[in-house]
Amino acid sequence: xxxxxxxxxxxxxxxxxxxxxxxxxxLLAALALLAIAPRARAEVxxxxxVPVGMQPRVGAEGETEPTTYANPSGNPVLHSENTYAIYWxxxxxxxxxxxxxxxxxxxxxxxxxxxxxxxxxxxxxxxxKTNVPARFLDAFHGAYTDTAAYPASGCVDPAPFQxxxxxxxxxxxxCLTSGQVxxxxxxxxxxxxxxxxxxxxxxxxxxxxVAVCLDGGGASGHCSSLSKTAETYENSFCSYHAAINxxxxxxxxxxxxxxxxxxxTAGGIADPHLTIADQxxxxxxQDGGFDPSTxxxxxxxxxxxxNTAEQEAFEKMNKAEKEEVEERESYEGPHEEQPNQQPCPTxxxxxxxxLADPIINQLGLEQMNIVTNPLLNAWQDERxxxxxxxxxxxxxxxxxxxxxxLPGSHAGTLFNQEFAEGVYYINDxxxxxxxxxxxxxxxxxTGVNLDPKFxxxxxxxxxxxxSFNGMESQITLNASVNYPxxxxxxxxxxxxxxxxxxxxxxxxxxxxxxxxxxxxLSPCAASAFHTYTYGGTYLVTLTVSDVGGNVDHVTQFVQxxxxxxxxxxxxxxxxxxxxxxxxxxxxxGAGSHAAKxxxxxxxxxxxxxxxxxxxxxxxxxxxxQVTGHFEVLxxxxxxxxxxxxxxxxxxxxxxxxxxIVIAKAILVTTKGGHSVVHVKFSKTVAKRLRHAHGVSLxxxxxxxxxxxHPETTTVISAAKLVG
Length: 723
Description:
Largest sheet: 7 strands, mixed
Radius of gyration: 30 Å
Low-confidence stretches: 1-41, 59-63, 295-300, 569-593
Structural class: alpha+beta
Number of helices: 11
Mean pLDDT: 80
Distance between the termini: 31 Å
């Protein structure tokens, strides 16, 4: 395991359940293999006839942190992809409930593509000579069961299943070489006139008892089966991806076929269709051996080692008591996480629905590797390890579920990803910024955080120098490389832009010293100095763009004491105020006879979850006594997707997209000033919004003054909340 793996904690003890002695023996044997094996890592290798990006069960001894992680030639990454799942299953042994969970995952990922906060958005820091970020803009184009008969085995399965019903014609094991899989995929695509090229990805899945080998298999073969000895275990793998690239171009072409192969590596615990001998664990290919939420950190889940007193007491027990102790101890070792296990049991009487979850984790790994290294010549380190390798078996931070064993399944239910309506347990991905910067320096992440922050100065007088510190911001993707003009790779960093609300602005990089030194680029702007010439209430906005092209902003109010700007009525602009424009000095009273009241308003909340719990925080400023109301608007298209109803928003500027009103709040003031209000969402709207990982909103403030002839001012601003 590399030193990049984050500190994670042992799982909480689990609820015991009854297992047969044969199953218990299999679990203990698997734990023994895990104890002697070094941690696994992905790598680009040439074994047999097909070069692959492989996910081995076990990696090399003495691994160290990578010194480079690069794409020096700027070779292609994927900017969008259409995905197909192909189940090569002529004997109908890939259970329908497994396919339902897996297909649902692929569809939910497609529905969530491009949303900030999930693990796939981390990939946007990787680019190629087009200088377009690798975007996981995925569209699931469906699944299909390929019933073509398996060819004669081209390899020898080192650990075949014992269940005869799962074995092919003649009751012999089915062992497919990587070449046979590639040939069948190519034939399947041709037979159904399916698309090729760099924008399409196929995933080939095979059922239990069908091994896939990169070579001839056997005792020293590189195969997918759960090997029973340390020698074959060391060469075994969990999945791989490859490319059929007949043109041989380093950029691929319209005839290129990109694909991942996901053999059945989930084991068979709690599957009633399998013999006891075949109900083995599959933890090596998903490994639920950590609980990131518990203390102390930095320890793996390990099999319990009895002390002298415990061993003496154990030896005095009868057979049933010993089995119960061994069973309980086995739950302290690594076990799978199956958030989609329920119901348990299923309609077929088993607790095996969750076996789809380790397969989904392998899909996630290959999806991330294919996007950043589709032709095996792009992003990798000096050992040819791909991006999920640096974080193999790192699943922090979890979002829900429990590490305790669900009775009947020998699996927990932790999840760390939420896509649309589904929850999943997907390996972390490598954040390149951790190699380049010490802060935040988190190399293994489950999603992207872009949270601009700064603290407004107070007691400000006109003419004084004040500072705004954008270095408070939390930015996951804050350093990478790009390829200016399609040339050699160059340093690339997050950018900061300031609008000080008085008509002046600045932009640049961190950290904000007068001269930015390496590795930063000039000009400096993460921290900025500014002087206000006139008094008033100013709306200051910091906008941050990370290296993946994600953009967010935060707005704060600054009250400046001093004379009003010449030509203004008591500091009022004389018209409708907009966020970022200067206002009057609240409380001056001079604006009470202006044609229109002066007002500013902006959403202060950044977190969607916090806004749903506490209300949407809105900062506002008015120059005099007013009455009015706030309206929170949501685009009609987004509302339809989330099944949110509301009254249409009328009176929007010409050309505005259709919006509906999803929340309101009254505003009544007795004098000028500024404050923050919290607008509550209804229970129904809040429930629907919780299904979104982020949402863009529109804020409208409509106010009237208390003058003898009242006038109305409308202020409109946009905001984006992240999950």
